[in-house]
Structures are given as C-alpha cells and as structure tokens.
Amino acid sequence: MNPGDRVRVDRAGVTNEGVLMPSSTPDHLVVKLDGGYNVGIERAEADVKVVESDVYDVDSAHSESETSEIEFDEALPTISLISTGGTIASTVDYRTGAVTAQFDAEDVLRAVPDLAGRANYRGRVVANILSENMTAGVWQDLAEVVAEEIRAGADGVVVMHGTDTMQFTASALSYMLDTPVPIVFTGSQRSADRPSSDNVMNAVSAVEAAKSDAAEVLVCMHASTDDNACALHRGTRVRKNHTSRRDAFETVGAEPVGNVDYDSGTVEFRREYAERDAVDLNVRTGLNGNVDLLKSTPGLDVDRYADMLRDADIDGLVIEGTGLGHVHTDLIPVVEELTDDGVVVAMTSQCLAGRVCDRVYDTGRDLLDAGVVEAGDTLPGTAKVKLMWALENLAHPADAMRRSLAGELQERSVPWT
Amino acid sequence: MTDYDYDDLGLVAGLEIHQQLDTATKLFCRCPTTERDPDDSTRSFTRSLHPTRSELGELDDAAVEESRVDREFEYLAYDTTCLVEEDEEPPHRLDTDAREVALQIADLLDMEPVDQAHVMRKLVIDGSNTSGFQRTALVAQDGAIETSAGPVGVEDLLLEEESAQRVEERDDGVTYSLDRLGVPLVEIGTRPDIDSPEQAREAAETIGMLLRSTGSVKRGLGTIRQDVNVSIAEGARVEIKGVQALDDIDDIVRREVGRQVGLLSIREALAARDAGVGDTQDVSEVFADTDSGVIGGALADGGSVTAVPLYGFDGLVGREIQPDRRLGTELSDHAKRNGAGGIFHTDELPAYGVTDAEVAALREAVDAGEEDAVAIVAAETETAELAIEAAADRAETAIEGVPEETRGANDDGTTRYLRPLPGAARMYPETDVPPVELDPSDVETPELLTEKVDRYHSEFDLEAGLAEQVAYGRRMRLFERAVGAGIDATFAAGLLESTLTELRRDGVAVGELADNHLLGVMRLVDDDELAKEGVEEVLSTIASDPDLTPAAAVEEAGLSGVSESDVRDAVSDVVDRNADQVESQGMGAFSALMGEAMGALRGKADGEIVSDVLREEIQKRA
Hints:
Chain A is α/β, with parallel strands linked by helices. Chain A has helices at 105-111, 136-151, 166-176, 199-210, 302-311, 332-340, 362-369, 380-393, 397-400, and strands at 6-11, 14-21, 28-33, 38-42, 47-52, 78-83, 90-92, 99-101, 120-125, 156-160, 177-178, 183-186, 217-222, 229-234, 238-240, 249-251, 258-261, 267-269, 282-283, 291-295, 316-321, 344-349, 373-374. Chain A folds into three domains: 6-56, Roll (SH3 type barrels), CATH 2.30.30; 59-283, 3-Layer(aba) Sandwich (Rossmann fold); 291-400, 3-Layer(aba) Sandwich (Rossmann fold), CATH 3.40.50.40.
C-alpha cells in the first residue's frame, strides 16, 4: 500500500474509498475521497484494501504538465529569469505539508502565463533553496550566473528569490556587480499555489522593470495590498517589514525609487538612477565570511559577549546599536580590543530609520575613541553584507563603511523624497 | 403548477444545507462574526485571481470557465476584520467553539466524526474568497434523519468558512464585503434518498430544527441557505444553489423536474427533425441600417453581430420550459456568462426593433430555412464571438438532452445557469492549518426543539402554540434563563413573544432591547417593583434610550413609587366621579370603573391591587 493507490478503508462501520495520500502523522492514513476531501483515519482501527495500485503518481504530479512552447520574437528584449527557489516558484510538499520550492525558471513561465509576449526569456536555476537557507556561496554563484547572462546578451535579469532574505542577496549583488542592465529581484509573500498569490503581478512587474532603463539592483514587490502596482526599491535600502503582507517590502528612509503600473506595464521613477549601458560589466564576488552582526539589547550579558567576541576571531563586526548608535558602556573596552586587533567595527542603529551619530552623547564619543566607524543611515543587514565584501575587495574597508558604494548610505536625510 | 408522477419519472433529489454558526469569533481568526453595513467600511482594496492546479496536477472546469472573464474584485474591510480576511496573514488554528458545535450537530444527525479532520482549499475564483479558495473540512459522515416518507441518509458534514458578501456587481468586477468572510458555516449533504418535492421540504425542515436545537446557529435572512440536487431518470444531475426560503424547496424541485421534462421533449422533437447546429458567423452587415436600439448601439460602438443557424430548431427555441423561461433563455444564460447582454432568436423575432425584412435577410445570410432557427448576439466583437459560441454549444447540448450543471435559484422558483458542475480537482490541502483530531466523547447532546415544545407544555403549562413559538423563537435561551431565575413561565413567554411583537407593530425599536433589559424588566415585575401593566411602557422607554437600566426606565416612565394609599386615593376619586353609576348599578359598574382607575394610574399599579381596592370602595357606597 503506497501513496497514489486507490484504497477502500473500513473503520467503525464507515467505508471510505479514495486515493491514499502521503500522511504527515504516522498514526493516520490520509485518504482523498472522490469529492476531493481528505480525511485522516486512525491506522490501528482501519481495515484497508488496495483497490488499484498507482492510480496517481503523487510525487510527480506537478512535473506532468505540458511544456510550454516558447517562441523567439526579435522585436522583444531578452530577459533572463533566474530562480533561487522561494514562494514565487514553489508548491506544496504533501509529505510534510510545507511549502517548498520545486519549480525551475521554465515552470515559472507556465505558472505565470501573463509573462508571455512581454519578452524573450532565458531560464537559469542557481539554487533551489528556501531563502532562510541562503549562503554567501550562493550569492557568489548567483552573481557569476547573472554576469554570464548579461554577457550572453540578456537585456535585463529577473531573480526569483524567497522573501525572507531577499534584501541580503540584493545587497550582495549590488556590491558584487557593476551592471549595464537592470537586475530585478522579485518573490511572493502569498504562495504560488493560491489563486490570490501575488506572484503573477510581481513577476510581470519585475519583467517590465528589467526592460526599463534603470541599470541597478532593484527589488520589485507589491506597493500596497492592492493588485495594481509594484514598488521598485533600491537593493541596499530595502527591508522586509512585515511577516505576511504583500507590501511587506519597504524602502527605509525614503520613498521607493520607482513603481510599475500593473495594467499598463509602465515603469516610472521618482529619483535619479544609473542608466542602462553607462558602465561596463564588472564582477567582484569575493566575500569575507568572518563578519558578525551584533544587536545590543538591555540584559545582554556583557562578560559572555566579551568572551564570545574575543574568541570568534572575526575580521569585521557590525553593531546594531540602540538609538543614535550606542552599546552598553561595559562593552566599549571590548570594542577597543577588537579594533586594536585590526577588526573593522561599524555602527548602525536598531531604529532602522535615521542616521547614527556618536558625537552627541558620551557613550558615542567613547565608541568613536574606541575605533568604531559610523555607517551613517546604512541598514544593519546591508552593512553586514557590505563589510563582508569591502574586507575582500577594497584597500580601506573601514573608510568605505562611511560612504555610499551602492546607494546604501544617503548623504541627505530627506525621507519624504 | 403541474404535478408529475415522480416515481414514474425516477426523481432523485438531495439537499445541501448551509448554516452559519453563532460563535464569538470566526473560524480561522479572532474577529467577531458581526454583520456590518457596507457604509461603515473603513477601508477597501482591489485584487485579481488566477486559477491554480490541485495537488494531483488537475485544473477544475468551473474555475477555468470563471477565469475566462477578466475581472477585478474590490473588498470592503471594517474595524471588525483583520489581515486574515484580507489574505494578508496565514489563517490561525481552527476555532474550537465552531469545532464543538459541529460535533454536536454530527451527534444530532447520528453521524460518525472522522478521526482527523483535514482542512482543504476548495477553489472558488469568483472573488467571494480573497484567497481564491474556501477553507473546508469534512468533519463527520454517514448519518440519517427521519421523514414521514422514510429515512434520508446524511452523507457528510463539512465545517467551512463563509464567503464574502456580494455588495455590487459592475461590468468589470464585483465588490465584496469582508464582514461575512470566515464566519463558521456547516454544510450538511444528504444522500439522494429524496423522491418527492414534499419530502425534500420536510427533510430540510427537520435538518433546520436539529440545527437550531444546538442554540448555536445564526438566525435571520441569509444565515441558512439550501442547495438542492435534482435529477430524473432520463435527465441529469443539476445542483441548484442558494434557495433562501425553506418554503420554496418543493416548488424548486417541481420546477426543475418540469424543466428537465421540457428539455427531454425538446430533445425528442429535435431528434425527429434530425436537428443540428451550424457554424457561427458574423452577420453585422444584415443589421447595418437597423432600427433596433440594442443591435444598432452595439454596432455604433464598433461591435459586431454574430449568429448561429440552429437547423431544425424552429419553434423550439421559444418553447417554455419553466414559467417565462424558454430554451432561448438557456442559450442566453450561456451568452451572458461570456459577457454579452443575452441573445435574440428567430422564434421571438421580428421584435425589439428588428424588422421582418432583417429576419429574412438573417435567415438567408446563414442559410437557414423555415424549419430552422437563428440565434444572434450583438456586442463588442470579441464578446459577441465568445457569446455566440457559448450559445451554440448550449444548443448542441439540447440535442443530447439535459446538461449536468450548477444553477442558481431565482426568486420565483425558476433557476438560471451558473457554471459547470465543480469537480474534485478544485480541492487541495490547506497546508497552513494542521489536521485537527476530533474527540466526540465530551459532546453534550442538546434537547431538541421538538422536545422543548413538549416540555414547555407539560412542565410550564404553556399552551401548545405559545410553547412552539418560544422554543423555535430567537429568544428561547433568554426564556430559559428567565424561568431558571424563577420568573413565571407564562409571563416570560407572553412578554418575549406577544408583548414584543405588539410593540414592534406599534413602531417601538424592539431591536434595541438587549437580553439584560428584558430579563431586568421581568425581575422587577417578579419583585413587585413594577406592575405587569407598566411593562410595555418601560420597554418602550428603554427602546428609545437603551442606556437606561430597567430600574431607571421605570423612574423615567414615572411608574415608580405607587403605594397602596396612592391607589386608594385614585380609586376613590374615580368612584366619586361616578357616584351616580355606582348607586344605580352597584357592582355592575365594576368593569367600566376598573378601566378608568387603571387609566388614572397609568399602569403604575398592579391590576389585582386596583381591583381589590375598587371592589372595596364600591361596596362601601352601594
């Protein structure tokens, strides 16, 4: 008796016939009845007969679907769709009941027929992982693949990514690549297996953005709960600010750089952007993995953290300080030890919005004396990725943390623009 | 209405009863189940939906047909709805109260609960669910109810979320209200054991009674809906959705049988004529100079007129199969599903501004003879093409007989085409909600309403009619609370049924009276702090100012503080004024003076005390 078999189950005088499905609990058989309902029946109490074996191939139900014919149209730009896994290209795993990524980029075209006619597509799969499992190694592979696609003639790149850590990967690519074409990240907050999924509008809008003139790393996600427009966020300024809403992604400290109207496909920009073909493609994927992000919170055991930091043998530390950029005073000597050892220590704020300023209070001044570098209004997560990259690729990484490399640090605080 | 020999026709019917539960919160979030006025909406948003495959990789026909029409859905949200209704947050765990009520209903229907309920997603992409599916779980199976014509099996009990309420329909979309979305709903499906219209109605009544016996179901318009599945031996299974009133069920069944019988006789006639459906084509030229408003309007807007010749159909398209509904109406329903306003056909033409000459030209254009009919659609070109194809397909089906389909109940007991029958392909697991193990062991079996009626009659001596009114009424629980608190049962029943009904008829806002108001007033009477005669006035006072406590309302109405000496003074005044009458008639004047005395006291005093005092005063003077 295996999942996919047609079975008849007798239990307490009730007979059910249907297809055996994978069960998430060992004590129950799950039977899909002819009306479509699944019911769980206690295994120990049930009398089961297999009526017919392998009525359905439960495991590969999704790969049965027909291959779509993709025609090349010379009048259209070529967009490369790169999949890393995640909800936009995911489906339900009926063994665990969880949503997992099982699609490749080709499947996305099938899943989102609205993409047809907007571009010629190339598909690549770099990874098939949930974004919480993202690694620096995948960032590097992704940057190489994006570069290959651009060299191969892609007029724009769309990266499909799980939403949990999309902002980190977008930051990483912002530093690793000088790009002559748009690189647009998109994903979905509501899984692709529901008719209401945001994947259709996000994917369509991302393709439109990838066809646009903005040669930057952007994140394209719902601008509001409505299915009418996507916002375009700069990869280094964007943050997932809600666990489940469609419009979870926000540009911190500014309005989004642009937006895409869903009906018309029109892409509009609010601010200046790097124009298409203004730079030659350049890839520098080196990353230093010995960088940590430390959040300073009340109740933190200073001694334990001090030991941890001394033993960690790190090359860089980003502190997510309180307020204007502070840590518990007792930690300052530890910071000084680190900087004396040549560790770059950069300060950001857990306020997220606003700029750190360690010249206002004594703690801040002491931190500066201890060798801390102020990262301005750089987001803590972005600062970590930046420091990982800067340590490998720049002669003076500490200085680099004070200035903008890829739009991550705004010189003027004008959040209304 | 024609009645048929249902045995002979092989009528088989089943019911699906949908009942909202009266739980404190919704099925998958902690929002209240309160109904709201769309005007009180605090925000709105718009969405679109796309069909998805089941876990077995299949697409559902009904979902695909629905998705052909490109529509935008607007949703109204309230301060009583949250992100779950907006499909912006995963569902919470299945509400335990709703689960308990469902198990209680399973018990009343003599059903076996399943060991583990799996919440499924049932694809519904007409926008009535923000997610694009309805969450539903099979909770119990294999029960039965009794009817006078024999038992009717109950196949399944589903616990599911109610859909959003449709507020407005526009050309390009629909507006829905989120207040109703997620209210717990049970769906009870009977086996097709029903073989007459009367039995269908009786079975529905019995199930309704059992549901209300739980005391945990919502009451009022739209809180219970019946779907009826009907087929006859030569016909086909048809699901009729949304029968609002129980009283309509037998009529709906009769009229559906009539429709199927009518379609079968059309099939016979078509077979005899060797009928067929020709190719659709554009006939805009025929109507280039038409005086018909509908057709001329469509052409002036750049649209087209499309036509299909129906060979051998002459006279049959216009044949009535339900009151004021013809085969042509069925074709029209299908054309409407594809965005057209409807069809015209030659059985009804010339009319609507279409001339004899145009009809002749139309017949000629599509090569249709006298035995044939022609159907046309005038609309925007793409719509006109889709709609005439849909009408042609339906005409094709008429040659085969009765199509299986889902239909909607109209107010007059007729039905209209809605969509194809949904299949199992529209169901896949709701992975956001873990399976729920059901434990029926601690479910309490409630007293049935029929048992309550008997008990009220025997225990409280309520006469049968009043006992039934109270037991089936909305204030049954309040009545039981009052009686439990020692209030006289007859008084409580009279107040909750007759008094409130009278007040409503007099235009008092009875809806403002909360259970505590009513119970408080009953207590005041029970404690002799308010005369029964003052009850109506106190209730009216509270209804116009619901913030008043019952005691304050008694003050406000000026009905407090009437001592026996006040009564004696008032009665004595009355007797004095009518001294002549008292002298001549003695006790014979009692009735007339009683009325006057009560009037003078304006219900402030108990009638029995007034009557005692009056009797004494008359005796003194006679």
